[in-house]
Amino acid sequence: MNENNIQQSIISMKVFYKKFGLKEYPFNIYTAENEKEYARNIFTDPENYDSINESFEAGRSLIIRGNRGTGKTALLNDLMLNDHSSTCLTLLIDDFSSLQLHPSITDYYNLIIKNIVLSLFFKLFEERKRLKSLSKDDRLFLSFLLAKYTDTITKNQLARKIEEIQLPFVKRWIKLHVNSITTFLNYGITAATNTVNTIINNYYGLPLVQESQIHAILPKINLDVDTNFNSIETSYSMLLQICTLAHKLGYKKIVVFFDKFDEDGRMNNDAEIISSFILPLLCDNKLLENSDIQLVVSVWEVPFKRILVKVRSQKHYCPLLSWPTTFLTQALNKRLSFFSDNKINDYRVLFSDDVSQDDFDNIFNLCNGNPRDLWHIFNQMFQAQYSLNPYVEKICHDAVSKGLNSFITNFNFYEYYPKKPNSRANTMDVYSYIKHLLKLHSERFTKNQLKEFANTGSSTNNYVVQMEAIGLVENTHEKQNKGVVYRISDPKVVYAMKHQIDISKL
Fold it and tell me: SS3 string of 213-267?
């Protein structure tokens, strides 16, 4: 090997992509959480953004649907950033570990209450003057909320926030009581919690709540005397009372965002468990229609479709995020422009002249209206070109073909078509169904053709029913030789069939 070849062999991926005019690599981050610092620079509206935003600004509750990677979290982040008025109390709930796997609507009420109370206290750090509008009973109620709905960890966080503000009163209080705090630490958690409560109550100018006071105050705020707050009506009534208190504090709009239900590790990617988990919340029309609070719920389309008949989708606005090719192109170009310091404004300049329109059509067809899948495809094409020839500044036709093949063979189909975690090894799942479909000669088929080419025998009808249920195939409602014609819905499977690509479990 000569010196020139040795020199060329050490070119890095970073050197390679910078030859294209990119300052950073745009296609190795696939979650909105990892792009928060520049989210506003790359966010692109989905096709139905205007109607979603108009409904949101009108105060309607929303159930935003979409497959994984369609930008649900990015959309929620955008709505939250847009709604930053001083009269708006906005909070995000994406941790459901405190709920059981089969939560009741009461559990959801209490989860919302705890998060509103926490957000309310953190808001009041910078806006303590709002407390002047509260009556004595309102202040006592606020103290009760602090005692009832915040745990020791949260109270410690609140105390640390107060100390960070370094108000003169707090400094004097800490200096005066530091010795007594040291002494009382020997009494353990209880004494420490009481100390934190004192700091917080003194900071907000709230009265300390004794058990006897709690029982005395409840009748004044029109609540049932039930200190456990476990019944549906009591929890809902408490939620409304908190909304009323927030309104008195000057927060005219209370918005609760829900996201990432399916990312709870206990769900095991099981669409049936997830659909059961979200059902109580999405079926509570009383909460969804309440004008005192606005809910924006992000849900994965697969489990949502399982409960669609139980959700009042005609009554509530349930938009399905849509990304036609035109919108995907805008999102791609905006991303490239940001990561190239505005040097690349058209994705086509990344490709050599031998890349045809059919190649571009295949790229956008295979991403199936999914921005995240489009980023994966471009990553595979860059990797393919780097493997074929890293010394060029364009992606060639062979790299496109190799990248698309790699995208399909490495794709995790369980992302779209989840298998039950406790199912047996020989149970039919999406990969088994795809094996049968790849034996067909066309993406359109009848049951008899599937039986003939895939040798599915007496199980043919069951296979078709199951594939249609998970959305892998669809009924065209056309007839061929008295048989119903079905069509393979997933373009990746169709492409694999046409190009004889094997799809197997990873």
Answer: HHHHHHHHHCCCCCCCCCCHHHHHHHHHHHHHHHHHCCCCEEEEEECCHHHCHHH
Backbone φ and ψ of 64, nearest 5°: -90, 120
The amino acid sitting at 295 is: L
491-502 residues labelled b (16+ CB within 10 A) or e (exposed): bbbbbbbeeebe
Domain ranges of the chain: 11-29+324-409, 48-87+258-321, 111-251, 422-498
State percent of the chain over pLDDT 90: 61
| Backbone torsions φ then ψ of 354, nearest 5 degrees | -80, 0
493: Cβ–Cβ under 8 A, 6 or more apart, which residues?
Answer: 434, 437, 438, 443, 472, 503
pLDDT in tens, 119-159: 988 888 778 888 888 888 888 888 888 777 776 656 666 66
Q: Has residue 196 got a pLDDT over 60?
A: no
327: nearest Cα among 43, 33, 29: 43
Asked if residues 206 and 146 have their Cβ atoms less than 8 Å apart, the reply is yes
Q: In which residue are the tokens 């049951």 written? A: 447
Fold entry, domain 422-498 = Arc Repressor Mutant, subunit A (1.10.10)
